[in-house]
Specification:
The chain is of the alpha/beta class. The protein has helices spanning about 30-40, 45-50, 65-95, 140-145, 150-170, 180, 185-205, 215-225, 230-235, 250-260; strands at about 10-15, 20-25, 50-60, 100-105, 110, 115-120, 125, 130-135. It has one domain (about 10-270). It has 10 helices and 8 strands. It has a 4-stranded mixed sheet with strand order 1-4-8-7, covered by helices on one side.
């Protein structure tokens, strides 16, 4: 992906080195527990509140950024800036005004309007404060644990979270009842629509000429890697379709690819799609 030298977003909030709660019995075991709990449809905030203790005040340590981390932060800022350009234009076409979200870089744990969260839950979007939260260590998670390397794989993840922001601004799924919103089916349709919107962004990224050979495949590989069925097979050796919250690998790839090919908001109505 040819990203260097492009505009960086001014909407990045750097909280690296700042934490609000201290993990009890932390380490890889706790990370796996939180990850599985989230993937099986739980609210990560619930389990995190039981696994953490309030220290009474935020702790802050000087953050020493490595050269590799600086490059990752710059990359994230460039991708965010590009989503700002794409969605501002798309909203303008429809007589709407796009509100740029903030992207928060953090390490370990972070406080958001959605509660205290751990890096173990991965990148997430909080509609309560219109912010994306990313611990850059997820780069290595994608590469090492999900076998989804490449800068465009991470770009897909960022675009997916921005997709949730677009959904929030457009009140996507607002016609769905409160009871339906509490179902796993609603969650799957909501997540697949964010994948579709990530594909719409990628469509315009290709049009701007900075996608390189293999970039689209990196994004599709990432979408495949984070499918509920693929993650459950790796974590427990079998799948439980009733517990899916984000969609299967095939579904995630299909909707991202559909957004990439269509390049329009209107083609991503997953809530009324008879077949996902």
């Amino acid at each position: 992906m040819n990203w260097k030298g492009r505009r960086e977003s001014s909407n990045v909030e750097d909280r690296r080195g700042i934490g609000g709660k201290t993990m009890i019995g932390g380490g890889i075991g706790s990370i796996i527990i939180v990850l599985l709990f989230t993937l099986l449809g739980g609210n990560p905030g619930d389990i995190m509140n039981n696994m953490t203790t309030n220290t009474g005040s935020d702790t802050s340590t000087p953050y020493q950024e490595t050269a590799a981390e600086k490059e990752q932060a710059d990359f994230v800022s460039v991708v965010l800036a590009d989503t700002e350009d794409v969605w501002s234009e798309e909203f303008k076409k429809r007589g709407l005004t796009y509100e740029n979200p903030k992207l928060v870089l953090y390490t370990g744990n972070v406080q958001s309007a959605c509660g205290s969260q751990s890096a173990a839950v991965g990148p997430f979007y909080c509609p309560g404060d219109h912010k994306l939260y990313i611990d850059l260590s997820f780069y290595q998670e994608l590469k090492n644990n999900f076998q989804a390397p490449g800068d465009f794989a991470m770009a897909y993840v960022i675009a997916h979270e921005v997709g949730h922001h677009v959904q929030t601004l457009l009140d996507a799924g607002d016609h769905v009842s409160a009871a339906e919103k509490r179902t796993n089916e609603y969650s799957v349709r909501y997540e697949l629509q964010a994948d579709y919107l990530a594909g719409v962004w990628a469509h315009y990224a290709q049009g701007k000429g900075y996608l390189e050979k293999g970039d689209l495949e990196e994004a599709l590989n990432a979408a495949n890697a984070v499918g509920d069925d693929n993650i459950q097979k790796k974590a427990q050796g079998y799948v439980v379709p009733e517990s899916f919250t984000h969609g299967t690998s095939a579904q995630r790839k299909r909707w991202f690819n559909k957004g990439f090919n269509n390049g329009t908001i209107e083609g991503g109505d997953t809530f009324n799609a008879p077949n996902l």
